[in-house]
Write a structure and sequence with these properties.
Blueprint: H1 2-19, H2 27-34, H3 39-63, H4 69-93, E1 97-101, E2 104-107, H5 108-128, H6 146-163, H7 168-178, H8 183-206, H9 214-234, H10 240-264
Length: about 270
Amino acid sequence: MEILGYILAVLVGISLGLIGSGGSILTVPILVYIMGVEPVIATAYSLFIVGATALVGGVQNAMKKNVDFKTVLIFGVPSIAAVYATRMWMVPLIPREILTLGSFVLTKSIALMLLFAVVMVFAAVSMIRTKKQSNGNENSVMTYNYPMILLEGTVVGVLTGLVGAGGGFLIIPALVLLARMPMKLAVGTSLFVIAAKSLIGFLGDLQGEQQIDWSLLFGFTLAAIAGIFLGIFLSKKIEGEKLKKAFGWFVLIMGIYIITKELFFS
């Protein structure tokens, strides 16, 4: 099963390289259901894996001048603060048993997996839906809706801290709509935001009492990074939009599966 997990880690990286977002949404289910990692720990591992892989992609985009570092700061600071606070204080405060309804007990692990599955469903809908072309182009003048960007950064940070997903499917639309940013620039900028908030959020777990399996974590991360380079190579040969929709349907099925499993078969 571990070998299968590392193979799937490569596929996560490939999907990130091909479509720019969405691959990280599968990291937690792979860690939980294939690698046997406890869900709360899996969300911590996911922060490191997503952060490291996004950093590789962000550096590549920066070399192509597809990163707006001003927006990284505006969006990133509240997001980083929110994800760190969530991992450091909010997640430890969640009780092991949240709610009891008859024979069903809503535990902390089940609640986090259900929240993650809901995020997967929203991510899938975002990928499946045909988006209208943005008015932004390479020469457009960007405007900053500061209150909304700060609010969005905080919300994405809390969500990232709870479920361990990068949140690219939330960040990219926010940058395109709120800053009128061209899509290529939004993708590169979001990768740096994801990298910063995910890796700093992971530091919140290091300061707790979590026992980290570093060999598993580094192995999974290296496999995902290798997949990114392969995905970038394949992106030149495969039409990204069709692949994105197909991947969206797969994520949707996975989200529904997790909801069903955690509610009725846990």
